[in-house]
Structures are given as structure tokens and as C-alpha cells.
Design a protein that fits this description.
Length: 283
């Protein structure tokens, strides 16, 4: 087991080049928020934008778009029912996040199948929330792109077959051997662990607590992971995921000094300031 040190944060989060532009910081596509879970994809999009993503496009229910834009005019949005736009956006995206607030129904299943079928090797796919449940139920073949899975304990139980009380280091390590080489697993729990298939060691968070036990926390983390995945390319994808996951809980821990419960949107609000601070330390 490895712990996350300041040196890793400073390796990943670096100051931006003066000559860079938004295309250098990730073209993200976030898919989810089908009725009645519209807020989930809004929280994921907020986290992605606040973590510094260059371009964020959201596919959600058409009725959810005004709510999204009232919180986040910076994101582009389209209706998930628009098949042509979905196809175009899947081709264009560098990072795709599917699942926050996605209902486990025929429509959701069809969406996940399309995403899995269309993505190519040079793209990054983050599977979260409802998409994990659909993946566990349908047993789809994994796409050839870089895969990141972000299950909480119940989702990991469905996906791996390991009951919550048996979700120990050894059982997870063994199960991961059946996933594609390089798959990154964020195994969320009271002590979140971050793995990469093919590596024997893993990272474990030393921050976070029960003040994070509130709806939307995982959606915010997924959005942060997407945001980090699209930028900081001088570090490996695994390192970017580790730092995003750590910061999510580290910010919550700081806020918990004054708050009984930490709202996911408050973590997103604090992100730009914290990232700025770390980027200056590394110079």
C-alpha cells in the first residue's frame, strides 16, 4: 500500500503554459442525468469545469438542460435523445464520462452499449454510477480505450461478485486480473483505494470521512477525475486519477473543520483555489 504525498500532487498539478489554449486542457463529454436524477450530471459537470477542463459538453435529458445552464453556463449541452449529436460528440471527445444519474433502464442500457461500441484506443472512458450497474448486469465486452471504473462498495459487489465484507486488498487484486491491462479502479469506501490492473501495489487515501456521506459526492469525484484526465498530460493517467481522488477528500476534510456535512458543490467551489496553490508550490 502506498500513501499519497505532496510530491505527487506537485508532479501532476503544474502551472499552465502562457501559450496554451482551451484545446490543451481536454475535450470532455459527460453523459447522464436522466429523469429523476438530473442533479447528478450537473454536479459532475461543475466539478469538471472547476478542475480546469478545457471544453465540457453534457448529454442529458432535454428538460435538464435549463437547470444545467443556470448553474453552469460554461458547459455545452445537448439532448441524449439526439442520436446524431451523440455520435458526433463520442467521436470528438478525448475523455468520456458515462453514468452519473443514469437510470438503469432500456434507454440507459442502450446508451452504455453505444458508448462501449464507439470508443477508440486513444480515448479515455470513465464508467460511474448507473453505467456501472448496467455494466454489471449486461456483462458487456470492455472497449479497447483506456478504462477508469469508480464504483462504491455496492457497485463493486455487483461488478466483481465480492460481497462488501469480503472487499479486502487480496480479493480486489485477484479480481482485477480479469480486467483489461491498465484498467484504473477507484474502489470507493471508508478508506478509498486506487488500483491499476497489472500493478501489484495500490494507493490508499489517508483523508476523508463520514461528512462526505451525502448524495452527489461520487458524481463530483467522477467529474473531477474527468477534468484531471483531460489535462496534466506530463503525468501518467493513473497519477492524475490518484491526485483527483485525493484532492476530492482532502478538500472535504478541510471544509469539515467548520461544517457537519460537506456538500459536493462546495468541494467544486474550492477546487480552483486549491489547484492554484499546489501549482505554485511545484515551481
Amino acid at each position: 500500500m502506498k500513501v499519497i504525498e505532496q510530491a505527487l500532487l506537485e508532479k501532476v498539478i503544474i502551472e499552465r503554459s502562457r501559450t496554451s489554449h482551451k484545446g490543451d486542457y481536454g475535450r470532455l463529454l459527460l453523459l447522464g442525468g436522466t429523469y429523476p436524477y438530473g442533479g447528478a450530471i450537473v454536479m459532475a459537470a461543475l466539478a469538471a469545469v472547476k478542475s480546469g477542463a478545457g471544453l465540457v459538453t453534457v448529454g442529458t435529458d432535454r428538460e435538464n438542460i435549463p437547470a444545467l445552464h443556470s448553474h453552469l453556463p460554461e458547459a455545452m449541452a445537448f439532448s441524449l435523445q439526439d442520436q446524431q449529436l451523440l455520435k458526433e460528440q463520442l467521436e470528438r471527445a478525448e475523455v468520456v464520462l458515462v453514468g452519473p444519474g443514469l437510470r438503469d433502464d432500456a434507454f440507459g442500457e442502450n446508451l452504455v452499449k453505444q458508448v462501449f461500441a464507439r470508443l477508440r484506443q486513444n480515448q479515455i472512458l470513465i464508467v460511474d454510477g448507473g453505467a456501472l450497474t448496467i455494466l454489471a448486469r449486461t456483462r458487456l465486452s470492455f472497449p479497447s480505450c483506456q478504462l477508469i471504473l469508480t464504483p462504491h462498495q455496492k457497485e463493486w459487489e455487483k461488478l466483481s461478485g465480492i460481497t462488501i465484507e469480503k472487499q479486502k486488498e487480496a480479493t480486489t487484486a485477484c479480481t482485477l486480473t480479469s480486467f483489461p491491462q491498465g484498467t484504473i479502479l477507484v474502489e470507493k469506501g471508508p478508506a478509498t483505494r486506487i488500483w491499476q490492473a497489472g500493478q501489484s501495489d495500490y494507493y490508499q487515501l489517508q483523508v476523508g470521512g463520514p461528512y462526505q456521506a451525502t448524495g452527489g459526492m461520487g458524481d463530483t469525484l467522477a467529474g473531477m477525475i474527468a477534468g484531471f484526465a483531460g489535462q496534466f498530460r506530463q503525468a501518467s493517467l493513473y497519477e492524475r486519477v490518484i491526485v483527483a481522488t485525493h484532492l476530492h477528500s482532502a478538500i472535504a476534510q478541510e471544509l469539515a473543520q467548520e461544517h457537519y456535512v460537506v456538500l459536493p458543490t462546495e468541494i467544486s467551489s474550492h477546487l480552483p483555489k486549491i489547484i492554484k496553490k499546489i501549482s505554485q508550490k511545484g515551481t
